[in-house]
Amino acid sequence: MLKDLKLFLELLHPYRHRVRLALVIGGIAGLCTGAGITIGAEKLFGIVLNGSRGMPTGSVIAIASIFPILFLVIGICTFLSAYHLNHAGLSVIRDLRAEMFSHIQRLPLAFFQTKKTGDLIARLTADTQAMQYALTITGRDLAIAPLTFLGAVGMLAYKGWEHDGVIYIYCSIALLPLVIFPVRKLTQKLGQKAKAQQEELATVTNDLSQNIGAAKEVRAFNLQYRENDRFASRLSELFRSQMKVVKYTFSLSPFVEIISSVGLASAFVIGYYKGVSGEVFIAIFAALYFSYAPIKRISYLAGELKKGAESLKRIREILAESIGIDEPDDPADVGDPGGEIVFSEVSFAYGDTPALSGISTKIDPGCVCALVGPSGAGKSTFANLVPRFYDVSAGSISLDGIDIRNINTSQLREQIAIVSQDPVLFDDSIMENIRLGRQSATDDEVAQAAKQAFAHEFIENQESGYRTIVGERGARLSGGQKQRIAIARAFLRDAPILILDEATSALDSESEGKVQHALERLVAGKTVLMIAHRFSSIKIASKIIVFEDGHIIDEGSHAALYDRCLLYKSLYDQQSG
Q: Distance between the two ends of the chain, CA-based, in angstroms?
C-alpha cells in the first residue's frame, strides 16, 4: 500500500501546495470526528444519565449546540478537503491524458500496426478514470482517517487512564496488525485481478470501436446477431473479471467487522467490572468506535490504490514506447527544394518480415513516377519511406542531396502532399477539412484550391456550403466528393512532392473522370510518386518503376517496359483484357 501511495504522491507533486492544504483541512475534520464527537457524546449523555434538570435554558441550548457546530465544522472541512484533493487529482488526470495523447501523436506508424484502437482508448479513458478515483476518493479518506484514528486513541488515553485506559488503547490498536498483514496479501491478488479487468475492458472497447467503424459491412453481411453474441460474450468475460475485483476488494470487510465488534464487547466487559461511570464509558465507547472506523477503511483504500497503480502501469507502458523516428541534432535546411528523390541501397522490414531489399533509384524533379507491381510487392512501403513514416533498415534516402534523416521531420513533411485511396476527413466543416493542407490559409485560398480540384461547385450546392459538416470520416459525402476535397487539400499545400495512393481506384466512372482531371492539374510541375493498381491511372506517368517481392526489377517508359519486362507486360495485358 505504501509503495502504491508513493506512486500517487509523486504524480501529485506539481500540485503539492493544494494537496498539503487538503491534508491539513482533512486532518481538522478527522480530529473533530475522532476526538470532538467523543467529547460531545460524553457531555450530552453525561447530563442525561446524571438526571440534571435544573440547568438554565441558555446552558441547555449551548450544550445542545455542540453537535450541530461540530458536524458543521466537519462538513465544511470535509468539503474543502475533498474539493482541493479533487482539484489536484483531476489536474493530474488532465495532465496524464494530455501527455499520453501528445505522445501517441509522435509514435511511428509501426506502433499502430501492433496496437488495438480500443486498447489505446481504454488506457486514455478507463485507466485514467480508475486513477482518478484512487487520487480523489482514496486521497480524501487518507487525509481524514489517520487523524480520526489518532484523535480517538488520544481520547482513550485521556478519558480511560484512570480506568486502565491502556487496555482500551490496546483494544483499539491491536486490530491494526490483524488487518495490515491480510491486506498485503489481498492487494497483491487484487493487483492481478485489476490488471485483468482493465485488459478485458480494453477488449470490449476495441470490439465496440470495430463494430461501429464497420457498420456498413455488418449490415451488408447480416452480421448483427453474430456481433450481438460476440459482444455479449465479451461483456460476460468483463463481468467475471469485475466480480473478482469486487471479491478481493471487500473480502476483508466481514473479518474486520467481527474484530471490531469483539473490541467493543471487550470494552463493555472491562468497563463493567472496573465500575466506569456512564458518561466516561460512553466517551470510551465512542472513541473506540471512531478508532475502528479508519482501520476498517484500510482494506478498501489499499484495494483502490492497487487498482489505480495497475492502471498507472498500463498508462506508463504507452508513455515508455519509443518515438522511433529520431530527430537530427543539427537539422539541415532544405530551403526551396526542387524535389529530387534518390534511394541508395535501401532495405526495410516490418519487424522480421522483409518488405524492400537493395532498392536504388533516382526520381528527377518534376518527374511523374508510377509504382507498379503485384499486391505486396513493396510499392506502398517505398512511398511511405519518403515522408519518414518509417526509417530505413539499411541504405539512405535523400531529398535534393540531403539525407532525409538529417531533415527535421516536420519540415520534411511540409514538402510532401498525400492523396490516398480512402482519404480521411474529420467531423468538421468542408472549409476546415481543406484547410488541413495549410492551416494558415485564408478562406479565399481554400475556395481557390477547391476550384482547382473541381470541388467548388458541389461544395456550393451543399446546404451550408463550405460550412457544411461532413460527418465522421466524411460519411455525408460521396467517394468522389471526398476525393476531390483531399485533392483540394493537396492543392492548398502546394508541396513540391506529391504521393498519390491509387486516388481513383474506388470511384465510379463519372467520379473518376472528374478526379482524374483534378489530378492532371495537381501534378503539374511536381515530383510525383503514383502508387498504381490500375494501369489506366498511369497515363500521365513519365517514368514507371516495377516492383516484385520487395525488389525493383525494371524501370522506364511504358513502351520500353512493355517490350522488355515480362511482369509489366503480363500485368498490363491482364487489365487490358
A: 72
Helix/strand/coil for 424: coil
- Shared fold status for 2-319 and 341-576: no
Cα distance between residue 153 and residue 158, in whole Å = 9
Amino acid at position 354, single letter: P
Domain locations in the chain? 2-319, 341-576
Say if strands 543-548 and 368-372 run parallel, antiparallel, or are unpaired.
parallel
Question: Which class for 399: exposed (0-12), middle (13-18), buried (19 or more C-beta within 10 A)?
Answer: buried
378: left (phi over 0), alpha (psi -120 to 50) or beta: left
pTM of the model: 0.77
- Give residue for cell 453537535: 67
User: From CA 530, how far away is CA 200, in angstroms rounded?
Assistant: 42
Q: Spell out the SS3 assignment of 235-273.
A: HHHHHHHHHHHHHHHHCCHHHHHHHHHHHHHHHHHHHHH
Helix, coil or strand: residue 390: coil
Beta strands at 416-419 and 497-501: parallel, antiparallel or unpaired:
parallel
Binning the chain into helix, strand and coil, the percentages to the nearest 5 are: 65, 10, 20
Sign of CA pseudo-dihedral 425, 428, 430, 433: negative
Per-residue pLDDT of the chain (577 residues; tens, 9 = 90+): 566 677 777 888 898 898 889 888 888 887 777 666 666 666 666 665 555 556 666 766 776 777 788 888 888 988 898 888 889 988 999 999 999 999 998 888 888 888 888 888 888 888 888 888 888 777 667 767 777 777 767 766 666 555 555 555 556 566 666 666 777 777 778 778 888 888 888 889 888 888 887 787 888 778 888 889 999 999 999 999 989 888 887 776 777 777 777 767 776 777 666 666 666 666 667 767 766 777 777 667 777 788 888 888 889 989 988 887 888 888 888 877 788 999 999 999 988 889 999 999 999 999 999 999 998 899 999 999 999 999 999 999 999 999 999 999 989 999 999 988 888 899 999 999 999 999 999 999 999 999 988 889 889 998 899 999 998 888 888 888 898 899 899 999 989 999 988 766 555 566 667 777 777 888 888 999 999 877 777 878 889 999 999 999 999 998 999 899 999 899 888 877 6
Distance (Å) of CA 100 to CA 209, 368, 516: 19, 40, 41
Per-residue exposure over 483-520, b if at least 16 CB sit within 10 Å of its own CB, e if not: bbbbbbbbbbbbbbbbbbbbbbeebeeebbebbbebbe
CATH 3.20.20.70 corresponds to the domain 2-319: no
**Cell, residue 403:** 539525407
Q: d(Cα 1, Cα 7) in Å, to the nearest integer? A: 10
Q: Which fold has domain 341-576?
A: Rossmann fold (3.40.50)
What whole-number distance in Å separates Cα of residue 496 and Cα of residue 528? 9
